Amino acid sequence: MPKKKMYDRGKVFAGLAVFVVLLIFPFLLNLGKAAPAPELKLSDKAKAAKECVESKAYMTANHMQLLNEWRETVVRNAQRVYVNSSGKKFEMSLSNTCLDCHTEKAEFCDKCHNYAAVTPYCWDCHVDPKETM
Amino acid sequence: MEESSRRTFLKLAGFSALGLGAKPVLDAFASSGGVQSKPMVMKGEKALQAKRWALVIDTRKFKSEKDLEPMIEVCHKIHNVPKLENKRHEIKWLWTEEFKHIFSSQTHDFLDERVKDLPFLTLCNHCEKPACVRACPTKATFKRADGIVLMDFHRCIGCRFCMAACPYGSRSFNFRDPRPFIKETNLKFPTRMKGVVEKCNFCAERLAVGKIPACVEVSKGALAFGDLGDSKSKVRELLSSNFTIRRKPALGAGPSVFYIV
Amino acid sequence: MLEKALKGNKQYYGWIAALLVVIGVGFACYLWQFQFGLGITGMSRDVSWGFYIAQFTFLVGVAASAVMVVLPYYLHNYKAFGRITILGEFLAVASVTMCILFIFVDLGQPTRVFNVLLHPTPNSVLFWDMIVLNGYLFLNIIIGWNVLEAERNNVAPAAWLKPLIYLSIPWAVSIHTVTAFLYCGLPGRGFWLTAILAPRFLSSAFAAGPAFLILLCMLVRKLTKFDPGKEQIQSLAKVVAYAICINVFFFLCEVFVVFYSRIPEHMDHFIYLFAGLKGHSALVPWMWASMILMGISIILLVNPATRKNETTLVAACITVFIGTWIDKGLGMISGGFVPNPLHHVNEYVPTIPELAISIGVWATGFLVLTALFKIAVSIKEEVSGVS
After folding, report:
1. pLDDT tens profile C229-272
2. Mapping DSSP to helix (H, G, I), strand (E, B) and coil, where does residue C186 land?
3. How far B250 CA lies from chain A's nearest CA (Å)?
4. Is B48 part of any domain?
5. A31-44 pLDDT tens trace
6. Rounded distance, CA C78 to CA C72, Å?
7. B159 with B248, same domain?
8. CATH number of the domain where residue B110 is located
C-alpha cells in the first residue's frame, strides 16, 4: 500500500474534538452531583414478615431474574408454587404475592426504578390495586 | 415429581441464562447450599391435571342469546377482556355465532328452526394440532402437556401470523391499549398491553388452583369440562352417549371443543 | 466507493431532499403508530394483515427478480448482462431493505423483534423468512460491492465470490418461495391454500422486477453518461414477456380449479375480489384494472414490433408493474382474509397514516436505490472514461 497523505487534518481533529465533547457532555454536566440512593419505604406487612421470598441481599440484586423465571415457570410450565431456600411456599404471582406484601408500589418499586432509570413493562399488564382504585 | 420439576426448573434457568443472564440466580442457588435446600418450583396441591382437557357444549340446553350471556360475561370479566366499540378492534374470548357461521361448511337451507336461530358458543378450540402454534415465530403461543393452547403475552411480538393461521377466527389482537375499555378490572388477573394477540385460555389460572373454567361453572350443566384421556370422565361419558360434532373436521386440527346439536 | 453517492448535481440533491421529506412524514406517522398501536391502520380482527404485509410480499418479488440478470450472465455466460448485473443486485438490496422495514412496521410489539432470535422456532415459516431475507440482503451487498470494486480496479472479481454468486441464484428463488409458504400452508384460508401460490409469486416477480429494471435502465441512460445498452433492455423485455404470460396462465389455472370444483371456501374469495360479496366490493374495480393492465402488457410484449419500440416498451413495463402490484400489493393479502373463517364479510381499506408510513418505507427504499445506483453508475462512467 502506498502511503497516503491525510487531507484536512485540522478539520478532522476539530470534528473529533467536538464529537468527544458532545459524547461526554451529560457526564460533565452531572459531575459531582450524584443523586443519593432512594430510601425505600416498606409497608407494615412487609416489615412484619421480616424476610421476602429470599434474603434481602438476594432480592435486591436478583429480583428481576427471579421474576423472569417465575413468569416462565408459571406461564409456560404451569407450576405456580415456589419453595424457597428455607422450605417456605409462595404463590408465584407479581400482583397477588409481591404486591400483597409490598402494598406501596410507588414507594417501593417505582422509587428505585426511577432512580435507576429503568422502566420495566410489568405494569402495562399487571395491576397495582392502588393505582386502579 | 419434585425431582423432575426441579430438573425442569434448572434446565429452564440454564436455558434463559443464554439470553437473560440468569447466572447470578444459579450462583446464588449454588452458594445457598449447606444445610439449606435449593429453591424449587412445583404445581399447587389443588391443581387439576389431565392428559387432554376438553369441553363439551350441550346446545340443546340453550334457547336464546340470553342463556349464553352469563358465561360470556363471567369469562370477559375475570379475564379483563376489554369492550371496544370499534368493531375492527373487537376483542373476544367467548362469543356467539349462528350455525351457518360457526359450522359454515356443514350448513344448508333447510335446517330445523331450533338450530337455525340458535346461538352457538364460540371460542378457541385448543386444537390437538394447532396451526397457530406451528406458525408462531417465538413460541409465544404454545401447547401445554395437558392440551391447552396458551399465549405468553410477555413474549408475543404482535406479528399476527397466528391470527392468519387459526382456521376458526378465535384470536383477537390489541390494536390499542385495552385498559381504558375495561369497565371493572379484576385485580387478580393481568390485563394485556397494546400489540399482543389474545384468546381463551381454558381458564388455566383457575385449573391451577383446583377450579373448573368459569363458563362451565355458571352454565347450569350445559357445559362439561374434563379429561379426554380419562375414560371415566364426564366429557368421555357425554361423548360416548351423544352424537357430537366439531368445527371444520376436514382440516385435521382436532378441536377439543365438542358440540351436541 | 461510498463517496460517489455524495457527489451529485442539484437535481440529484433535490431528489434526495424530496425523498427525505417523504421519509420524515412517514416516520412521524410511525411514531404515532408506535405510541397508539396498530389501531391507526385499517386492519381489523378479521383482516389482520393489510397494506404493510402486501407491500412486503410484492417487494420480495422485485428483490428475487435480480436472479433474472444474474443467472443468464453467470450460468449461461450471456455477456451482455454483465453490464447490468450490478443494477439488478442493487435493486435487490433496496427491495429487501423495504421488505424488512415493512415487516418491522407491521409488528405490534416492535421492541421485542429479537425474540425471533432469542427463541428460534424452526416450525414457523416466519423464522425461515427472516433467515432467507437477511441472507439474500447480505449476499447481494457482498457480491454487488465486490464485483463493482473489482470492475473499478480493472481486475477480475475475487475467486471466493463465485460460490456466493452461484448460491445467490437458488437463494433468490427461495426468498419468494418461503414468502409464499407463509400463506399457502395455512389450513383455513382457501384463497392461499394452493400449491400454485409459490409459482404464481415467482412468475409475477419475474415480470414486475425486470419490468422495473428496464424502466430504471432507461432512466439511467437519460440522466447519466452510462448506457445500460439496447440489447440488455431487449433481453430483459423478453424475460418480462415470458414471465407475465406464465403469470396469467398460472392465475387462470387457479381460476379453473376453483370455479370448476366450486368449493365455496376457495371460490368465495375470488367472488369477493372480482364481483363483490354480500354488498362488499371495494376491490372489484382494482382487480379488473389489474387484469386489463396485464392483458394489455401481454399484447404489447408478445408483439415484436411493440416490444422493440422503446416507447411502447415503456408503456408495457408500466402496465406490468402496476398490474402485478394491484394483484399482489392490494388483492392478494386482504383477499385471503375476506370472507373470514366464520364466513363474515368485513372489508379492509387502508387509512391515511397507514399509507403515509408505507410511502415512507417506499421512499427509504428509493433512497437506498438512488445511492447505490449513483455509486454503480459513477464507477461505470469512470471505468469507460466518459466522465
Report:
1. 999 999 999 999 999 999 999 999 999 999 999 999 999 999 99
2. coil
3. 30
4. no
5. 777 777 787 778 88
6. 5
7. yes
8. 3.30.70.20
Taking alpha carbons only, the member of A84, A82, A71 closest to residue B28 is: A84
Q: Count structural domains, chain B.
A: 2
Give residue-wise pLDDT tens across range C27-70.
999 999 999 999 999 999 999 999 999 999 999 999 999 999 99
Contact C86, C352 (CB under 8 A): no
Average pLDDT over residues B207-226: 96
Looking at the fold, whether B16 and B84 belong to one and the same domain comes out as: no
Shortest Cα–Cα distance, B212 to chain A (Å): 15
Within this chain, do residues B16 and B57 fall inside the same structural domain, yes or no?
no
Q: Which of C32, C33, C35, C38 to mutate to test the interface with B (most CBs of B within 10 A)?
A: C38
Domain co-membership, B7 together with B107: no
Closest chain C residue by Cα to residue B173: C45
Q: Is residue B40 part of a domain?
A: no
Structural domains in chain C, CATH included, are 2-384 (1.20.1630.10)
B15, B124: one domain: no
For residues B39 and C105, give the distance between their C-alpha atoms in angstroms, rounded to a whole number.
Answer: 42
- Domain containing residue B218: 53-260
Closest CA to C209 of C178, C176, C179, C177: C176
Q: What ipTM was reported for this prediction?
A: 0.91
Angle at B153 between CA B150 and CA B159, to 5 degrees: 95
The mean pLDDT value of chain B amounts to: 89
User: Which chain B residue shows the shortest CA-CA distance from A93?
Assistant: B188
